[in-house]
Amino acid sequence: MTTDLQTAINLIRDSRHILVLSGAGISKASGIPTYRDTGGLWETGDNLKFSHAASFKENPNGFLDFWAGHRQQMCRARPNPAHFAIKELQTKLPKSTLVTQNVDGLLQQAGCKEVLELHGNMRETRCMHCLPSKGKSLFGRCLRCFSRVRPGVVLFGENLSEEIYQAAKTGACGCDVILVVGTSALVYPAAELPVLAMRFGAKLIVLDPEPMLALAADVVLTGPAEKLLPILIASV
Predict the structure, then answer these.
(1) Which helix (H) or strand (E) element contains residue 9?
(2) Which residues span the domain enclosing 224?
């Protein structure tokens, strides 16, 4: 066992309140492409174009067709060992806050509770006319006004849910360890969470194949989440 891994184990084992901030990297092994890697979603086709809120008004058919295909891909995906490791972590520690930038719902499928989804959930829908937040729909139409609905995700040009983000910030200010896994944590406002946590004295553990917060971290574990995270949590 490496020194860094043992240090991470000790930090988590002694933690009273851990915050886990996860990103696209934890779902890569489930068959869902990441965004920023070579060949990632933002480098191919219309992925970046249809990630902007304005594209729904500019080209609603193209927008909905794109997200329908993306949703099918996510609905076929199943949790991998990284998701189940986070679920195990939640059962082992007295207090945890789970924050994710993912919209695939795989943490919940793995059994995780009270997941704060910063960017929404692909499996839910939103009506832009009468229900700015998630609402009920049938056959792609809002049950309240019968307008076309779109996926319940936060796009570029939109604000995060204030309630969810405030809960995430509260967790960051109160935790003593923050585990950043499968994300570069460079995009705001999510990138603010590690900064807040460290400002209030938390130790930072970064686990990623290409850790971008290495200089700021107390411990860096380099490798895929689906391999390293189960080893880390099993030893806590």
Answers:
(1) helix 3-13
(2) 3-234
User: What is the distance between the alpha carbons of residues 223 and 12, in angstroms, rounded to a whole number?
Assistant: 18
Over residues 134-168, the pLDDT tens digits come to: 666 666 788 888 888 888 888 888 889 999 999 99
> For residue 172, which of 208, 195, 137, 197 has the smallest C-alpha distance?
197
Question: Is residue 83 flagged as an active site residue?
Answer: no
Whole-structure pTM value: 0.88
Question: Which one of 17, 52, 83, 119 is the catalytic residue?
Answer: 119
Residue whose C-alpha is closest to residue 98's, from 181, 160, 163: 181
For residue 236, CA distances in Å to 91, 169, 199, 231 come to 11, 25, 25, 9
Count: domains in the chain: 1
Q: Return the structure tokens found at 115.
A: 């997941």
Query: Cα(205)–Cα(190) distance, rounded to whole angstroms?
Result: 16
CATH of the domain at 156: 3.40.50.1220
The H or E element that residue 221 is part of is: strand 219-222
